[in-house]
Design goal:
alpha/beta; 7-stranded mixed beta sheet
């Protein structure tokens, strides 16, 4: 088993860490799905307000790939379809009212092992679960007509306030193994599962395993690809989140879409940081049932570095397994730049302040300044564990120099891998957003 030892990165010492116990909460009364969170798709509705849907029945499809459909996360009635400018579908809400589910064929492990690629692919497409599979480069929903070089599964989370995947996967070992076996049918290459160093979750068949150190962003699949089998121009890699691998496994074992997920609800603004059993598309309000929430917090679906701001009447993102709660009250101290500080009052990645151990920090939503001119002091380079020059790539993207971007390794990049650069940036530059702009330029060039 190969090991990837990262020398760069940073684990943010953020307060509000959840305990290890997983709690059950009341099921959400409504569920939602937002097509605009899936990069690069052109959604076409398959339902209307008032329609009855089953768990797993299709809600919309991608006009560029009509065979790829999105499954309903609940059984019930289409409560609301919200449109934005130019009739772009922003949100589909379902009022939960039953347990009816679309049912497909059921397979044992041995039967699954004898299926060919076309059959496995058809089962996933017919169940409307293919959007669980994403594609690199560009980190978009995969194209079922393509054959990936390899398929990567990250079984480690290193993002702030994220869940520990190993106990979850240990409880669902049979379903996870079934999902891995199914995915192995979809590539002529390898299914590569990345675990943390010293993991007890081993003996995964039909896959190659590797370990990685736990310095964030080690859990990002882009970092794992970069250090094991880097992407070259023309390569296609598929990636699947670990809990979605379990869901794919249960599809073959039960014939149904299992939406259950373990979600972290935590952060400095959480009154009761905890892990909870929830479902794909649950309302943010349902996840806050054990929290004392006031108007002075910001709710983020996803981790604090890459997530999106949500209100209580909105829904958990399709790929998100965390809701971060941050205090949103920002007070600007008088002559703040000249005040003495220490590691308990001011957070620094460069040891600017006196250190008093590895204490957790009460972060809020303050940026501590507005965007300013770039200061090239290696702040980005010190936290990016990739053999890439982020400063030079940033400049090439702003200049829209396609050839230079390609030479500097844009094919291997994704905005989530540069989120820590944005956090560390003394100039308050959203580096990840610029990387996404570069990827969009490359994709448009074809």
């Amino acid at each position: 088993m190969d090991h990837i030892d990262l020398k760069k990165g940073h684990n943010i010492r953020i307060s509000g860490q959840p305990s290890g116990e997983i709690f059950s909460i009341t099921r959400s009364e409504t569920f939602g799905l937002s097509p605009d969170e899936f990069h690069g798709i052109k959604p076409k509705l398959m339902v209307a307000e008032g329609d009855q849907v089953k768990l797993g029945s299709p809600l919309f499809f991608d006009k560029t790939k009509p065979e790829v459909k999105w499954a309903s996360p609940a059984s019930g009635t289409i409560k609301n379809i919200q449109f934005g400018q130019r009739r772009i579908i922003e949100k589909i809400e379902i009022k939960d009212s039953g347990n009816d589910a679309v049912e497909g064929p059921v397979y044992t492990q041995d039967q699954l092992s004898n299926l060919d690629r076309e059959t496995v692919l058809k089962i996933i497409l017919d169940a409307n679960l293919f959007p669980m599979i994403r594609q690199r480069p560009f980190n978009k929903i995969a194209d079922p007509k393509e054959s990936p070089r390899d398929i990567y599964i990250s079984a480690i989370n290193t993002a702030p306030l994220s869940i520990d995947l190993e106990p979850i996967l240990s409880l669902e070992k049979n379903a996870f193994q079934t999902g891995v076996t199914a995915l192995s049918k979809l590539t002529l290459g390898e299914v590569i599962v990345t675990l943390m160093k010293g993991s007890d979750f081993k003996d995964i068949s039909n896959a190659t395993t590797q370990t990685i150190s736990t310095l964030h962003p080690a859990g990002n699949v882009g970092i794992q690809i970069h250090h094991s089998k880097p992407i070259n121009p023309g390569d296609i890699i598929w990636t699947v989140d670990a809990q979605n691998v379990v869901a794919l496994g249960k599809l073959f074992l039960t014939g149904k879409y299992d939406t259950k997920r373990v979600v972290s609800v935590a952060g400095p603004g959480a009154s009761n940081p905890q892990f909870v059993f929830s479902s794909v598309g649950s309302s943010i309000k349902s996840l806050m049932i054990n929290q004392e929430i006031d108007s002075d917090v910001r709710l983020i679906s996803g981790d604090v570095l890459t997530g999106s701001k949500k209100e209580l009447d909105q829904y958990l993102g399709f790929f998100d397994t965390a809701v971060a709660i941050l205090p949103d009250t920002v007070e600007r101290p008088f002559m703040g730049m000249l005040q003495l500080g220490n590691s308990k009052t001011k957070y620094s990645l460069t040891n600017t302040f006196f250190s008093f151990g590895e204490s957790l920090f009460q972060f809020n939503t303050a940026q501590n300044g507005s965007q300013r001119a770039m200061v090239p002091i290696n702040a980005w380079e010190n936290v990016l564990p990739m053999d890439i020059y982020p400063n030079a790539l940033f400049r090439a993207i702003l200049a829209e120099d396609i050839e230079e971007m390609e030479k500097l390794g844009i094919w291997e990049c994704d905005d989530e891998d540069f989120a820590l650069c944005s956090f560390a940036c003394p100039s308050k530059i959203d580096v990840g957003a610029v990387i996404r702009k570069g990827l969009d330029l490359m994709e448009a060039e074809g």
